[in-house]
TrEMBL record:
GO process terms (BP): DNA repair; DNA-templated DNA replication; error-prone translesion synthesis; SOS response
Name of the protein in its database record: DNA polymerase IV
Cofactor(s) of this protein: Mg(2+)
Reaction catalysed by this enzyme: DNA(n) + a 2'-deoxyribonucleoside 5'-triphosphate = DNA(n+1) + diphosphate
Family the entry assigns: Belongs to the DNA polymerase type-Y family.
Xref: InterPro entries: DNA/RNA_pol_sf, DNA_pol_Y-fam_lit_finger_sf, DNA_pol_Y-fam_little_finger, DNA_polymerase-Y, DNApol_IV, PolY_HhH_motif, Rev_trsase/Diguanyl_cyclase, UmuC
């Protein structure tokens, strides 16, 4: 529970239009111009493109209609990963209390650094300057007593800004904001609230928890009641362990015309990447999770739990293919725009159930082969060996998944 003397010492640092900013940094001719990363689906848009209504995850055709003079560039995931690593080095050099949220944002707790580093505002300003000078990217920082309010502050300060919410001005800052600023309030929940005349955070704060629960459900009602009064007891947590290993690929509108063989190639490619990462980090898992997004932006999730934990590509691929086959009617009906997989129920020690060699050829353990392939790829590159089903095919763009 926060007391009156608790300082505003939680920072939410969020890179501005991350992918697009990296492209503008690396190609000076793009600076000040509308830039879209990704063709079939917008992976990122510069603020110049956003001014015309272009948004992340929007279809490429719609984005072009809104901003026909935008410059479309292909994504470069290795460049974004390197930039993210460099930014997080600055974060961790600022304070050891860093909680990653995604590749381009994190919470930092700078309480207790006053004597050596200055006030939270001074720390935030210096962090922004270092990211600009050392990595070449704009970043926005929000500062508040709670994680929730620090994130709201960074949203309000974008782009390329810094905003402190003083403890004695929290509700004065929060209450005039639109209800969408509350965590968990998407378009549908906002529409429900708007139908009852609830437009701002202040409108939410005037209602009881019971009344909110009757409008949006008990759990959501409790959350909105707490957040509208800036009650958020979560601390900045470091070293949070990933509970799954995953990857996903955006297909764009062309996904609806993919054949079963083409979809299977995407599945093989993603599972191959996931299992290679699992073996590299000595992890095994039991549950395979399929995530699909369709042309109408609806999503579905399916999962299958295997009898034992494994990092075998063949075993996980077999489970993944079964999940895709079971979802076949939905894919045919709605049109596929994104495929993702994750392996959960992770054993971080890489433990596997040993078995006597009684299995037939169809059930033979492929892990020794996987490990040999990993060694070849580690020495000669990932393209040194590839699966036959992927020959001549575009491996496609893998979109980073947020850690669980």
């Amino acid at each position: 529970m926060f007391v009156s003397g608790t300082p505003a010492a939680i920072l939410h640092a969020d890179l501005d239009s991350f992918y697009a900013s990296v492209e503008q940094r690396d190609d000076p001719s793009l600076r000040g111009r509308p830039v879209i990363v990704g063709g079939g689906v917008v992976l990122a848009a510069s603020y110049e493109a956003k001014a015309f209504g272009v948004r992340t995850a929007m279809g490429g055709r719609q984005a072009h209609a809104l901003c026909p003079h935008a410059i479309v560039v292909p994504p470069r995931m290795s460049a974004y990963s390197a930039a993210s690593d460099a930014v997080f080095e600055v974060f961790r050099d600022t304070t050891p209390l860093v909680e990653p949220v995604s590749v381009d944002e994190a919470f930092l707790d700078v309480s207790g650094l006053g004597r050596v580093s200055g006030t939270p505002v001074q720390i935030g300003a210096r962090l922004r300057e270092r990211v600009r000078d050392e990595v070449g990217l704009p970043i926005t920082v929000g500062i508040a007593r709670t994680k929730f309010l620090a994130k709201v502050a960074s949203q309000e300060a974008k782009p390329d800004g810094l905003l402190l919410v003083p403890p004695d001005r929290e509700l004065a800052f929060l209450h005039p904001l639109p209800v969408r600023r509350l965590w968990g309030v998407g378009a549908k929940t906002a529409d429900k609230l708007r139908a009852h005349g609830i437009e701002t955070v202040a409108d939410v704060a005037e209602l009881s928890e019971t009344t909110l629960g009757s409008l949006v459900g008990g759990a959501m009602g409790r959350q909105l009641f707490a957040l509208s009064h800036n009650v958020d007891r979560r601390r900045v947590v470091t070293g949070r362990r990933r509970r799954s290993v995953g990857a996903q690929r955006a297909l764009g509108r062309s996904g609806s015309s993919l054949s079963a063989a083409e979809i299977d190639a995407v599945v093989v490619n993603l599972v191959d990447r996931i299992t290679r990462r699992m073996r590299a980090s000595d992890r095994t898992g039991r549950t395979v999770v399929l995530r699909l997004r369709f042309g109408d932006f609806t999503r579905v999730t399916r999962s299958h739990t295997m009898a034992r934990a494994t990092a075998s590509t063949e075993a996980i691929l077999a489970a993944a293919r079964r999940l895709v086959a079971d979802a076949g009617p939905l894919i045919a009906e709605r049109g596929l725009t994104l495929v993702g997989f994750a392996v959960s129920n992770i054993d971080r020690d890489g433990a596997q159930q040993l078995e006597l060699p009684f299995a037939d050829a169809d059930c033979r353990d492929s892990l020794p082969i996987d490990l040999a392939i990993d060694q070849v790829r580690g020495r000669y590159g990932t393209s040194a060996l590839t699966r036959g089903v992927l020959l001549g095919r575009d491996p496609g763009l893998e979109m980073p998944m947020l850690p669980d």
